[in-house]
Amino acid sequence: MSVLEKRLADRSGNKCELCGYEHDLQIYQVPPTSKGTLDDSIYACKNCVAQIEDPEKVDPNHWRCLNESMWSEHLPVQIVAWRMLNRLRSEGWPQDLLDMMYLDEEALTWAKSTEETEDEAEKIIHKDSNGNILADGDSVVLIKDLDVKGANFTAKRGTAVHRISLVWDNAEQIEGRVEGQHIVILTQYVKKTK
Q1: More confident residue, 90 or 67
Q2: CA 182 to CA 171: how far, in whole Å?
Q3: CB-based contact 28:49 (threshold 8 Å)
Q4: Does residue 28 lie within any of the structural domains?
Q5: Residue 132 belongs to some domain of the structure
Q6: Which of 42, 76, 116, 163 is the most exposed place for a label (fewest CB within 10 A)?
Q7: What kind and span of H or E run contains 165?
């Protein structure tokens, strides 16, 4: 165990400083300018580190632990907590925590300094009922009968909708043609087809 790891283990009580897990712990140097010191590193479990480093692996419910760790007295823990809450803020509850969090100007600059800019974090991601990411031009199938307001017909379950377009400002809506009508469909009622 390196001197840094020993100091981090002592600081954290041999627990992940983010979620409190006690196994598979490792040093995570907080980018972008970490020098591998106590002031720019955290002690974290492999699960947390994997999710920090790969946005595709993020399980929003895992990060409810930030409700406690965001109040850490150690700045690198606060920075990582802020970044993860920022990444997840479209979930709703992380935005509430972000609103409570305070970082001084220097810390906020550090928190925002990774390649994951706010634009990236704000990017709206459309997902179908199974959690598959949808893109413009995809084909989907309706998974329940939908009454189409204003058009006086019901879009039947199993109806294929080809070449959908995403509603750019709402992750829960897509647009497509059903029975010749251009309609808005909620993503929770569709399943992506290959």
Answers
A1: 67
A2: 18
A3: yes
A4: yes
A5: no
A6: 163
A7: strand 165-166
pLDDT tens, residue by residue, 153-183? 899 999 999 999 988 778 899 999 998 888 9
150: Cα within 13 Å, side-chain hemisphere: 4
**Which residue's structure tokens are 């609103």?**
99
- Measured distance between the N- and C-terminal CA atoms of the chain, rounded to whole angstroms: 48
> What is the DSSP secondary structure assignment for residue 132, as one 8-state letter?
P
* Domain span at 150: 138-192
Element (H, E) at 185: strand 181-186
DSSP string, 140-153: EEESS-EEETTTTE
**pLDDT digits 0-9 by tens, 13-33:** 999 999 999 999 999 999 887
Q: What is the mean pLDDT of the chain?
A: 90
The answer to whether 74 and 45 have CB atoms below 8 angstroms apart is no
Angle at the Cα of 49 (from 46 to 52), degrees rounded to 5? Answer: 150
List Cβ neighbours of 177 (8 Å cut-off, separation of 6 or more).
161, 162, 163, 183
Radius of gyration (C-alpha) of the chain in whole angstroms: 21
Same domain, 90 and 10: yes
